[in-house]
Amino acid sequence: MERVPPTPDNYRQLYHKISGTTDDDCFPAQAFKRILSQLPAGTPTQLRFLRQFEKAVGQRSWPPVARALIELASASQGQSLAWGPLLQQIIEQFERRHTNLTPARKRDALEHVLGSASTDPALLHSRLTGLVKSWTAGATSDDAPLSLPPDAPAAAAHAPSAPAAGGAPAPIATLVPELGADLNDLMCRGVGAFLSENAGLAEAVSALGARLAAAPPRTELPDLQASVGELALRLEWAGEDQNSIRQSLLALLQLVIQNISQLVMDDQWLSGQLAVLHEAFSQPLDIRNLDEVERRLRDVIDQQGRIKKELSDAQLRLKQMLAGFIDRLADMSDSAGAFHDTLENCAGEIERAEDINQLSDVVEHLLRETRTAQENARRSSEDLSSLRQQVDLANAEIAKLQHELHHTSEMVRHDPLTGTLNRKGLDEALKRELSRAQRRSSSLCLGLLDVDNFKRINDTHGHHAGDAALLHLTEVIKENLRPQDSLGRYGGEEFLIVFPDTDVEHAVTAMQRLQRALTTRYFLTGGQKLLITFSAGVARIEPDEAPEAAIDRADQAMYRAKRAGKNRVMMA
Length: 572
Description:
The protein is of the alpha+beta class. It has 18 helices and seven strands. Among the domains are: 8-78, no CATH class; 310-411; 423-571, Alpha-Beta Plaits (2-Layer Sandwich). The strands form two sheets. A five-stranded mixed sheet has the order 2-3-1-6-7, sandwiched between helices. Strands 4-5 form a two-stranded antiparallel sheet. A hairpin with a 2-residue loop joins strand 4 and strand 5.
């Protein structure tokens, strides 16, 4: 028998030897992660490859890694761009005469391009190509006169704008003043609002807007066109830069959230907040979603702040109790030491006693000290028992507060209005039930419902009545669902129900049972009885089908139920 050290490599070799396989497919996740930490992320291309490679390593699969490397190699090959012809065109266009483009303006534009995209060769090539195209469009021959508009008479080149003989209207020589003012407003208030951090571009936009507001004559239109083209290029480049910065900041923020999640793994009361932040920044940013996340987090943080203070107070009281416990033990130790000294003194006096009278004094003193020690021990025992009860109560209070902290964190997985699961909670419930269904080879169905005529309720009775109607709906549904079923608010007046261990026919029956339950429970608002109904679609999650695809099928079935007359349940 061969003896080898118990190393991971030897275990792996032994496994492949017994199973008759090779270790070619062993995935070096740790080595790849070390490589990931050293990859550059200074350009959009590098950042895109970094994310793709990180995702492939997280899947521990060779095909995604291979695709990422192939894409990187293709991108690297594509970076062998035609720089020679491009530089030749730049030199030709720089020396050529252009309408209202001076050499100084060309030099400024070229310096701006080189400074803004010098770290990304592909981006630099693209921007330089665009710059050359804009110069080419404004090029003129050395002796070519500036052309007049085709509808302008020849005399307009020499005569001022005035009514022509015979009452014919004069050609339009300037921009409409109202249009110029509107364009100025668009440039300053519309475009300029996005350039608060780019003073140079903001000034260029304001200057162009002022020129437009002054209603320049047609003779200045070529110059305006050149200025607009140059500004459009600069705005495009600024937009690309801002988008790259935004993507990089989002990636950094996600890394920070992931790092915090790993550091506070034992603090379950933070898991909900970190999960909702990760969800918010993993999808395209939307101001409404961010406002909703901020509001939910603010409510949770306020509640957790109060509970955290109570927890700190309880922990402080526990520390004080433990300090008192230690002091009492010290007193008991001192009393025991004093009693021990008394016993030694009495023993010495007994040895030295010469008659019975001396012994009686010693015995009386010994009994008195014994009673005192007994009384001190009794009091100490009572004090320690009381302290133990207080410590038990403090520990129970701390455990209760810690549970409340965790429960408060879980609130970010629930809809604040109805108390049902939100999208994050639904995703977790679906993932959990799907995994269970795959292990048990059981059926898993979804029911997507939408309240009928909900907009009419809001418009007629107000939004408070609409919120109360949703609460009424969820209460009735919860009362008629099984304990293992999950209910969540999918969006607006749409709700999703997860039916584990249920085939599609029984899921349809369950949804119809909910509809009947609603007909027996009227919704009261403003002294009026309203009948709340819903239309629903039911779908079974097929093997190897993503939950999102099943939800889409249920959504289509729900809209068929709407078109069929509402208050119906359709099977996908």
